[in-house]
Amino acid sequence: MVGPERPVIALFGSSFVQYSFSNGGWGAILADVYARKADIVVRGYQGWNSRRALEVIDKVFPKDAAVQPSLVVMYFGGNDSIGKHPSGLGPHVPLEEYVENMRKIANHIKLKVSTVAFFSIDRGALTNVSRTNEVGKRYSDALIMLCKEMKIEAIDAFHMIQRREDWETACIMSDGIHLTEEASKLLAGDILKVIKNAKWEPSLYWQSLPTEFGEPSDYYVVAPDGKSTINQSDWTYHRKIRWDV
Question: Which ranges carry the SGNH hydrolase-type esterase domain (predicted)?
Fold first, then answer.
């Protein structure tokens, strides 16, 4: 553990989360926005479904850990909704079991935010995988209903990316499944809006959190008056998007 202690925001899920720090992903955006305010911890596992997550949930989020996350953003379901293989192998999980798995995981980690994005654009990248938007929508709708029941904030990323007319080419990677940099900007913005508007105490919105070691210092750049220094702790000029949602 590296101090001082900050709030921990955990991202938990399948490749949707594992890839979130690649190529301007939404996880990387959140890590930049929360710099010196909270630690963004990634627990993304490519290829996982809700069964696999439930098997090891106690190891990923041990109840006796000294530091518990203040917020968990979770995504599972894209692999669960893949068609059943005749061999019985593979990631498919029946819809009813999927919902119950997600309920158990959410209860374990006291989930507050869930991303919902079960979509597929057929580009031939995974030719042996049976994945359709129609089936994915059933899983997506079921998860949204569960989130409403459990008072969990649900972010519907599938409809989110469709705010752009060119979403099929601008928002989905060549594999037909994962988010591009442009789509990640939309998702990061929606996550920040949820956090800002939530009634959680204390607030976890980035502008509500103190900046670590944000006090003035004689070691900063000297101001034009030659008698003081310029505190750079909260500068955000380097960001193309301000994220003051």
Answer: 11-184
